[in-house]
Specification:
Elements lengths: L1 H19 L1 H4 L6 E8 L10 E6 L5 E5 L5 E7 L2 E8 L6 E8 L4 E3 L2 E2 L29 H6 L26
Parallel strand pairs: 1-7, 1-8
Antiparallel strand pairs: 1-4, 2-3, 2-5, 5-6
Length: about 170
Amino acid sequence: MLAKASSSQSLGFCLLVLVTAFEVFAQSASTGALSGTVIDPTGAVVPKATITLRNNGTGQLLTAVTDLEGLYRFSLLPPGQYELRVERAGFAPHIVREVMIQISEVRRIPVKLAVQGAREELEVESSLLQTEGAALGRVIDGSTIVALPLVNRNYTQILGLPSTIEGPGQCCG
């Protein structure tokens, strides 16, 4: 009975080692791996994003699709420089250049996609005709105020100036 318990424990230990060392077994001594998570601007995972990995040295293309948790993984990659491209409908493509993969390394690159077509643009149009009310006003710039012949240079004297409306050809009437 003791031998049976010991063999069950050994089997359990071996399974535990295999499960926890998955990252190491996903590559050989002469290759590396790349993994990561794809998220949107709010931090939610992006499933079914297409991941393209191009080896810059050989031109070889590898593709993967993120799972339901937004995870992707490339195993058994020869060492070298790669370019990572992530695409998903509704999002702008995301490119990571010069990704270096080393032997016996699992490189992790999280990707945050931006919403496609999202731009910040503010356009303000203004009419010279004021139709909201009967109030009249005018902006007087600093150089006009400095040029005014004020006796004691008190700018509040400007407030006492009368507002007049003059038509074309009418002056000082």
